[in-house]
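Homework help thread (please don't just give me the answer)

Our assignment gives two proteins as sequence + structure token strings and asks us to describe the second one. The first is just a warm-up. Here they are:
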Amino acid sequence: QLPLVESGGGLVQPGGSLTLSCTASGFALSRYVIGWFRQAPGKEREGVSCISPRGVKTHSIDSVKGRFTISRDNAKNTVYLQMNSLKPEDTGVYYCAAGPELTVERTQMHGNPGGLPDWYDDWGQGTQVTVSS
């Protein structure tokens, strides 16, 4: 397995937008559930959103619903996280991760639609998102 790579982070003002991308070389992301996680300094890594292998099912935590949209283009081997109306509390390092097909169903049963880090096998290096005025 090859590592995932995130891109698209940066510094934005509150209310701004960013689109993060997750890609991989050498294997197909279409075989996996892809989750987006974030980690703020001094805090645990938090699941944000996930998407099923074919993109039919998605889950997001309540704090980002209506603002963040997860999607994928398997032809481009890319998963996206479109982030609108960004808030300072969205600040953190954002990671994408790949997990088995059952992961997307586990998120809802667990009560956290963002999922848990231990449910995922492969991780990217992270991209910094900073929301500040």
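The one we have to describe:
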Amino acid sequence: QVQLVESGGGSAQAGGSLRLSCEASAYTYSSYCMGWFRQAPGKEREGVAFIYTKTGNTHYADSVKGRFTISQVNAKKTLYLQMNSLKPEDTAMYYCAANFDGWTGTCEAVLADFGYWGQGTQVTVAS
């Protein structure tokens, strides 16, 4: 089945930038939806950004609109999350997720829609 591996996490100062990568074992174009979730200690996992890879249509959480950009390079089998103007509240474990099984009617923060998950990469933003 599809494997997802995240990278690019680390520490940044408030206002700084990081770019996360998610390498997939299948072409991103073959998916129905790919995206990023994050989870801070003691909090529920929340959706961050999503892309319908066949058209490039995107959806973002209100908290990251204008700061984060999701993109994919199908030929590289890679999903990206460019994070700019980072805030301490962005500190979390970030997970790549993908739906390669079928169109559910949406491509957004619905946990049950994603059958494939990476192991996560930690992002820490200093105050």
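TA reply:
I won't write it for you, but here's a hint about the kind of observation we're looking for: The first strand starts at residue 4 and ends at 7.
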